[in-house]
Amino acid sequence: MPQQALDIDYDRYAAGEAHFAWVDREFCISLKSAQDWTAVSNCIQTLCCEFSSPQYRVAHLKMLLDDGETRLKCNLTALDHYEEKLAQFQEAIQKMHTLEATLRINAMLEAPLQSVEDNLDKIIGSNFRAATISYRQLSGFTRVPGYPKPTMRMIN
């Protein structure tokens, strides 16, 4: 079959893409007991509820938990009914029993970057502090795609 190049209007594509905020965070979390996994699960539920509100439009919201023994992944997209996927993820979280883990969050949302960053950091901080879960941010990355000038910021 002959190969045909796609006719893509990059200016139009980039104009649409520039409405999205990409926010990545990686945290180390330390729990006092296995019961604290409920608080981690509740925090993730709060994130999903917030970012599923009318203020945001989800392209994807990925969450990964890795405690060295178990690695869990939840990937929500705009086409998902997040309640079912979230329930399965939360059920799996309750089976975790180690006391230290890495939580990675990768969000691509149609929303202002500052709003996504502020709400993600506020939800993580307030939920973990309320449950007295120790946490520290290992890394972070934010990006607003743009053509010809994307904006990016790395946090270490």
Q: According to CATH, what is the topology?
A: Alpha-Beta Plaits
Give the terminus-to-terminus CA distance: 48 Å
- Label the overall shape: elongated
Give, in order, the helices and strands: HEHEEHEHEE
The whole-number mean of residue pLDDT values reads 89
CATH-scheme architecture: 2-Layer Sandwich
Query: Which consecutive residue ranges, at least 5 long each, have pLDDT under 50?
Result: none
What count of domains describes the coordinates? 1
Helix/strand/pairing category: alpha+beta
Task: Summarize the biggest pleated sheet.
Answer: 6 strands, antiparallel
Tell me what portion of residues adopts beta-strand conformation: 35-45%
Q: Which CATH top level class fits? A: Alpha Beta
Query: Can you count the beta strands?
Result: 6
Widest β-sheet, arrangement of strands: 3-2-4-1-5-6
Rg from C-alpha positions? 17 Å
